[in-house]
Design a protein that fits this description.
This protein is of the alpha+beta class and 170 residues long. The chain has 6 helices and 4 strands; from the N terminus they run ααβαβαβαβα. It has a 4-stranded antiparallel beta sheet with strand order 1-2-4-3, with helices on both faces. The longest helix is centred in the middle third of the chain and has 18 residues. It is globular and about 50 Å long. It starts with a helix and ends with a helix. It binds flavin mononucleotide.
Length: 170
């Protein structure tokens, strides 16, 4: 599969079978995150792989959707604001950008491996923090990524802006 095929085929998956995710596949996905680029190579991130039913139940409280409960595991991607690059001109914190790149590396690896996932950012960060016992104020849970085998294929058309609407060649 070409890179563009992976990008074209990927869909957000909101419904998973109870087939477990193989450890080798999980390792591959995490390696894709580990190798992601980051500003000044600061790598201001950490990853919680949550499989424990007990902890998953607490995480569901931060994002209460039935479909989310069907995933066999999730990865919570945390940004470390005390370790991220701040641009000297305006102090812009690049933590979110770095975390987004590492997350998208995982998302595309998931697709390549025939698995499915869905970015989740619309969760209650305080409840998620509690579920994972994160006490450090500099550490922010930014993305929850449920991963598993999709319950059914989704061939719905991708709704995207036309090239002419978004690209300016000057
Ligand atoms: C930063 C970000 C946050 C998102 N947060 C959520 C979310 O909280 N819940 C959800 O169901 N989908 C979420 N999504 C998935 C988007 O809704 C989805 O990517 C978009 O509608 C395009 O659909 P597709 O992923 O199937 O191509 C998020 C995606 C991104 C990139």
């Amino acid at each position: 599969m070409s890179f563009l095929d992976i990008v074209r085929n990927r869909r957000s998956v909101r419904g998973y079978s109870d087939t477990p995710v193989e450890q080798e596949k999980l390792d591959y996905i995490l390696e894709a995150a580990r190798l992601a680029p980051s500003a000044v190579n600061y790598q201001p991130w950490s990853f919680f792989v949550v499989k424990s039913r007990d902890v998953l139940n607490k995480i569901y409280e931060s994002y209460d959707r039935e479909w989310f409960r069907s995933a066999p595991l999730c990865v919570v991607v945390c940004g470390h604001h005390d370790a991220s690059w701040k641009r000297k001109f305006d102090e812009k914190d690049h933590c979110d950008i770095d975390v987004a790149i590492a997350t998208e590396h995982m998302v595309l690896a998931v697709e390549e491996l025939g698995l499915g996932c869905c970015w989740i950012c619309n969760f209650d960060p305080e409840l998620c923090r509690k579920a994972l016992n994160i006490e450090d104020e500099n550490v922010e849970p930014m993305v929850i990524l449920p991963i598993g085998y999709a319950l059914k294929p989704d061939n719905a058309e991708k709704k995207r802006k036309e090239m002419g609407e978004i690209v300016t060649v000057i």
